[in-house]
Amino acid sequence: MDPIYGDKLQAHNPAIRILTLLPGPRDAVIKCLLARVAFDKAARYDALSYAWGDPSDKTSIAVNGFQLFVPSNLSELLRMLRKPDNTTELWADAICINQKGVEEKNYQVSIMGEIFRRCDTAYIWLGFPCSSRQVDRNTDNAESPFALISHFAYDKHLYELPCFEVDATTKKVTFHHDAAFTSMWDSFVDIFQKPWWSRFWCIQESLLPSSAIVMLGPWTTPWSTIKLCEKDSLRHIWGCCGISASLMPPEYTWFVDAMVANSQVDPRHVPNHCYDACRNMDQLVRTFRYKDCQNPRDKIYGISGLLNHSRYPRLLLDYSLPIANVYTNAMEAMLCDGSGDLRCLTGTGFNSQAYNLPSWVRNFQARPHIAAINSETHRDKVYALYNASSSAKSSPILKDEIHLVLNGVWIDNVRKVGSTVVDRN
User: Residue limits of the Heterokaryon incompatibility domain (predicted)?
Assistant: First the structure.
């Protein structure tokens, strides 16, 4: 029996492990207790979301009295969350799941969506700010790196930023380069360039919790504040602050991450686009193909918690399967989701030479440029305007786990085939 993990967690006996972070001073060794808890009666806990980072960059902590090496990013987050006098109950995948047990990992990953749904709060760790002035919020010159986010989240106008001046008589607005605004903007850019945003797993970890707190060093802001910033800034830019927005140089352009655009402000209200995406596996993997993960299988498994599994009963979650099998199984699940259309066969990523994939299976690991994804997403949205099949439903058949058989109507003969696309991904 493993001295830290004990018996493995299995699906026939639903359970998770809760990490109890023991109190201690800031610089002391991190000590924790790990205990198995029935998932249907789990104690209250907070879930942790962070970028694993370089696999070789690990730090030693004490769990149940034994040494365990964890990602350094996680160690930093635990240090920030540790209280001097009280324990803290947490769930962190790198610790609470025995990463060496494939069967346990299959089961725990399959319920990760529910783990993040049930948590009291999800703590999203971005790391530390780049500016040394922001590392210690207790210094006299400390400024919040979330200042620009808060500005828009509080529904303020663009011309209220320090880079604008408004003539008291004519009300004419002018832009000028300002040190205070440059500092705000640099912090803003630093936040959205942190590795956490490029991580595929962070999609469900940010969209599913009813409450989430974003941490940058000692600074925090609710996830809902970032969503309000995106929502209200666009409303101002395209509305009352259009003139002010036109005066800003192009270097001050912000393109929102798809996670923010698809998130919800109020956990009781799910916008239609998020609601639909969470039921449409094809749209979900298309939207977030630009994000990365260490294990190519996670390009499918990493969104499992967002899916309506009654729609995808053929979808398997098994880390022992070859990557080609995982991607082929995912495509089969999309084709047989009951919709009867072949939309998932459109777009890029087919005919890939990676992993020996069949020609009709998309290489989900390939990361197209975000502009290409946006273009493909737009084309997908207008797909419903066309009806070449006259609403006929497809009946896909998979033979030998490789060959896809489809029925169709003969329209004409192919007379000429163009040159091969160089970039197959």
Answer: 45-205
Of 309, 112, 280, 334, residue with least CA distance to 208: 112
- Which token pair is 20? 């109890």
Instruction: Give the model confidence (pLDDT) of 79-133 as tens digits.
Output: 999 999 999 999 999 999 999 999 999 999 999 999 999 999 999 999 999 865 4
Give the pLDDT confidence of 7-41 residue by residue, as tens digits: 889 888 899 999 999 999 988 999 999 999 998 86
How is the chain split into domains, by residue range? 15-120, 132-261, 272-405
- Supply the DSSP string of 100-144, one letter for each residue: T-HHHHHHHHHTHHHHHHH-S-EEEE----SSGGGT-TTSTT---
| pLDDT tens-digit readout, 359-415 | 999 999 998 887 788 888 888 888 888 877 777 888 888 898 889 998 887 889 999
Q: How many CB atoms lie within 10 A of CB 339?
A: 15
| Rounded Cα–Cα distance for residues 86 and 341 (Å) | 55
Measure Cα distances from 247 to 236, 252, 405 in Å: 14, 10, 56
Please report which confidence band the pLDDT of residue 424 belongs to, taking 50, 70 and 90 as the band edges.
low
pTM of the shown model: 0.89
Q: Please count the other Cβ atoms lying within 10 Å of the Cβ belonging to residue 251.
A: 7
| Block residue for tokens 């004519």 | 170
The residue that leads in pLDDT, 273 or 219, is 219
d(CA 112, CA 301): 10
Residues 6+ apart with CB under 8 A from 194: 51, 126, 127, 216
Beta strands 173-175 and 212-216: pairing type?
A: unpaired
Rounded-to-integer distance, Cα 41 and Cα 310, Å: 24
| DSSP assignments along 56-87, one per residue | T-EEEEEETTEEEEEEHHHHHHHHHH--SSS-
Helix, strand, coil percentages in the chain from 3-state DSSP, rounded to 5: 35, 15, 50
The DSSP-derived string for 316-343 is: ---TTS-HHHHHHHHHHHHHTSSS---G
Count of other CB atoms within 10 angstroms of residue 171: 8
How many whole angstroms separate alpha carbon 371 and alpha carbon 277? 19
| Cα distances (Å, whole numbers) of residue 362 to 204, 380, 397 | 22, 16, 17
Cβ-in-10-Å burial (0-12, 13-18, 19+) of 62 comes to middle
Amino acid at 305: G
